[in-house]
Prior knowledge:
The chain is mainly α. The protein has one domain. The chain contains seven helices and no strands. The radius of gyration is 17 Å and the shape is globular. The two termini are about 20 Å apart.
Amino acid sequence: MEFQNLLKKIVQQGSIHAKWLNTLSFMENAGARKISKCEHPTLVSQIQLKHAAEEHRHAYYLKKQIGKIDPELCKTYESTELLAPIATSQYLHSLDIKACRYLQEAFKLNKVDLRYAAYLFVTYAIEVRADELYPVYQEALTEASSKIMVKSIILEEEGHLEEMINQLNEFAPDWKHHADHILAIEKELHEEWINAITEDVTQLHYA
């Protein structure tokens, strides 16, 4: 099923839509926690703090949107309240592990520097994905005349991507070559995730 059609199907059904919002919230929260985890013990830049804070805010914002569907739905991140919970929790984690493996091989970094490199490249890949995902989701919301909106997230994610590119330029002159490898890893994991979501939505739709 095409991603656009999948989202159209999701926004049509309240309980499934709530789980989708909760799943996105879970992923934004996981991203924020990973950014914080990658921090140097003392050399923490303002931009890194800003990213972690904004990803946390996105997680909160998406969670809050669920109330527009039904305040009683998806109060936690328990697996019964997420779409494709296993694939969802593995997505970022797998990307992190595979990216670290590649970056270690490419740059021969110590542990602290590897954490920072992973923050740069993984966050970049996630921002590229967010730049594709949220506008398509917003389109489906607008089409369905939904009360839910993600326009504010779209604007912030665009800003994040720009900031990540600036940081990557400082990190390595040939960063694009390495970023392409990370994007290829992410693309594969994203496809697995979307397939799992599609399967889940189809089952719930006909349940």
